[in-house]
Specification:
HIT family, subunit A; Nuia; HIT-like; 5-stranded antiparallel beta sheet; elongated; 35% helix; alpha+beta; Histidine triad (HIT) family protein
């Protein structure tokens, strides 16, 4: 009888998938220790992980490494803990667990319940941050030849989330190729502004974004502004794009403070700025254009 994980691989059972390739699958644990608790499996059903041939075991861990980077980028935590238990399901699997203290890895802890919408949001956010493997990035096969590039990449990944450079880079990645659809289509553009002095009044906002003084300013909650684009199938039945909008929304709400959407001007074209404060007080987010007739 196929294991429950094999039934997920075949599509017989649903899962909150975060990454997949020809031989491996990663998905959220539905009875997690913490939010973001992820399972990584080989698609080929093998009960005991150390019964896998050496090359398959190595490939599984390499895939898990990529997934762990996505979890770490999407879920606030100090480290991603790794565990292999092997007694719950007779199908080899690796636990990736966001952790801030050693006790977070205690499997005797009560399992938490996470709402379905939150699970979908987490899966989308992690999926958007799982890096492509070396072959997909076109990196040199010779590890020594790519050493300098790897060190640069690792230094960038280690940048503190609150720094302007890291925030700008993450926003560039998350908004790349996304289009907001109103009565027309407009690209999302990442933005970053110096910290305004004092409170962000309408006048201060207009000055910060370079809009005409006295322009009309309206505020809107971010989830309301993106509600059509973060629906399961998005605005055009494109679930992949919907997941990217969910990942963007989650990043803004987790990494920035007091995020709001500011609608500037009157129709037919309105400038929209989704902005929040970084840890250093700067404003960051994205802008787009709405067509409203």
């Amino acid at each position: 009888m196929p294991s429950i994980f094999s039934r997920i691989v075949s599509g017989e059972l649903p899962a909150y998938k975060v990454a997949e390739d020809e031989h491996h699958l990663a998905f959220l644990d539905i009875t997690p220790l913490v939010e973001g608790h992820t399972l990584v499996i080989p698609k080929r059903e093998v009960d005991y992980i150390f019964d896998l041939p050496a090359e398959e075991l190595a490939a599984l861990h390499q895939f898990a490494q990529r997934v762990a980077k996505g979890v770490l980028a999407a879920v606030p935590c100090r480290r991603i803990g790794v565990a292999v238990i092997g007694l719950e399901v007779p199908h080899a699997h690796i636990h990736l667990i966001p952790m801030n203290k050693v006790a977070d890895m205690n499997f005797a802890n009560p399992k938490i319940k996470v709402a379905e919408d939150r699970m979908k949001e987490l899966a989308a956010a992690i999926s958007a941050r799982v890096p492509a493997d070396a072959a997909h990035r076109g990196l040199p096969a010779d590890p020594l030849a790519s050493k300098g590039a790897r060190e640069t990449e690792e230094a960038n990944e280690a940048a503190a989330p609150g720094t302007s450079g890291a925030t700008a880079a993450q926003l560039q990645q998350l908004t790349n190729g996304l289009v907001y659809r109103s009565e027309s289509e407009a690209a999302l553009e990442p933005v970053h502004y110096a910290a305004p002095t004092g409170a962000l009044t309408d006048a201060a906002l207009l000055q910060t974004v370079g809009a005409d003084a006295g322009s009309k300013v309206e505020t809107q909650e971010l989830t309301l502004f993106l509600r059509n684009h973060t629906a399961d199938d998005g605005v055009l039945g494109d679930s992949a794009q919907a997941n990217r909008f969910k990942a963007l929304q989650m990043y803004l709400k987790q990494e920035l403070q007091d995020v709001k959407v500011y609608r500037v001007g009157t129709g037919p074209q309105v400038q929209a700025y989704a902005l929040g404060r970084t840890e250093t007080g700067e404003l960051a987010g994205f802008k787009t254009v709405l067509t409203e007739t």
